[in-house]
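Assemble and predict.
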Amino acid sequence: MSVRVRFAPSPTGLLHVGALRTVLFDFLFAKHEGGQCIFRIEDTDRARYNAESEQEFVETLRWVGIEFDEGPHIGGPFGPYRQSERKEAGIYATYIEELEAKGHAYKAFDTSEELDQMREFQQINKQQIGYFGGDWRDAISSEIEAAIAAGRTYVIRMRIPRDRKIIVQDAIRGRIEFDSNILPDPVLIKGDGMPTYHFAAMVDDHLMEITHIFRGEEWIPTSPIHALLFELFGWTAPVFVHCPVIIGADGKKLSKRHGATRVLDYMAQGYLKFALKNFIALIGWSPGGDVESMTEEELISSFTIEGLQPSPGRFDIEKLNWLNGLRIRSMTTEAVLEEMKGLYSEAYTKHYWETFVDEDRVPNQPEKDGKKIYSQFENLVLFAESNRVYALHCIKEEQERVTNLIDFGAACEFFIVDEPEMDPKAVDKWFGQPHVRDLFAHLKATCGTKQLTIEEYREKLVEFQTANGIEKLGPIVHPTRVALTGKTSGPGLFELMAVLGPERITKRVDRALTFVK
RNA sequence: GCUCCGGUCGUCUAGCGGUUUAGGACAUCGCCCUUUCACGGCGAAGAUCGCGGGUUCAAAUCCCGUCCGGAGUACCA
């Protein structure tokens, strides 16, 4: 039988990195096994339902490049793929009836006040907390009929068999054993007629012929309910794969405090989807050897459940940065430009940066200005529209020293702007030397007339150096760099001069002269 | 409280009873490259494998206990 996995989020909010990791595993596993990946919406909770959420999922998954074989947005032979729609179609009703008829489920008419009281009583008396039968598990039919006749609302609970072991086979951890006596009778159908996760997800997984359930480890405690459901229905259970959680750098559950948790935020920050996926896959999974930087194909071909780790993993942004930089450096400059254009075309990028607040700024570093970062990036992309060849040269020079797509904006700014910002410290440090005026004159005369090669630019500067008896090239190179770029760091001087060309060099040297005291 | 899960360098991990003086990667530090910042190369430091017992000729690897961390304990998923 072919492998079928599903990603079944509840549309209550944004798509976070933890959920991305789960889909990624679904996706990689399905691809590796040549199976199908199904997308299903678990919208059985009316109170927490968020209409925009499904769109967020679809959009994020589209960006990240995870495609499904079936789902609400593309259809498929096992539809509908939204549980609310499946409920309307009467799918759950027939199965709950079957369970009731077999005696594995029963109606319970307790009010929420009664349940609260019950828990309070249990707590005070140090009893096992939970619904283990109450008044209804063993109620006689006349009582039930009377309650129905009285119009009382009810839930349908599962009648957990007592005094036995329930075994759950977890693909990562192996056999997990539970005592059925500590399992309260879970609600299967709520008072509003909606199924709970326990019921809907398992019925759907069976109906959709799901073979492996990848989900977070927070589901382990309720997994005996799920395993039991399959048993009581007489269905063969899928393999449960409980993935460890992703935690923040401080060891706590990943939350907004740790910076971005929303996947789209990483896109907006200029991370490449391939690097993100590579990185995310490595949290809780390992191919077994020493390889870390992998292409998508390598990820797919080496993905196995055996490589999954049982312990929680931390989200280490430094490693993501490394992977991202590595990926950027490995791409052709044309491909980098394409990625930047793609990022620019995403509406969320602008929104992210314009509302950006630098919450965890690095000490001794200026606060990050989101609007400025975005406008520098935008300028570059727009500039590239009309000056593609020149822009490509600029990007190529910065490709070695940038970690994010968005960083190209600030890094390349001096290339494309007429009057780059002059770093006052740099000016102070290098423009005070006695030879700078002569140097700038020499620069204009030798480098400002026609396009030279990288080596020729070097020769011109060396020429000045020997003529003036200066020992090292540094005192020549540094002022020139500041004059041309306004900064003390950046690409190789001669390479950068070759990109700028004579006209820009002349203009910039002229302007630099106004800074010389 | 109860139940379940987890525990190898700061971090991600390799390891599946002997080839282990526990390997790799990120981060850190140093050196080299070099006109700067990076990149790249080389190297250093960093884990008595949570702790304590046991099994065994031999344990990070198997068993038991213990501690710590986490999750669940909803008509949420």
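The longest helix of chain A spans residues 493-513.
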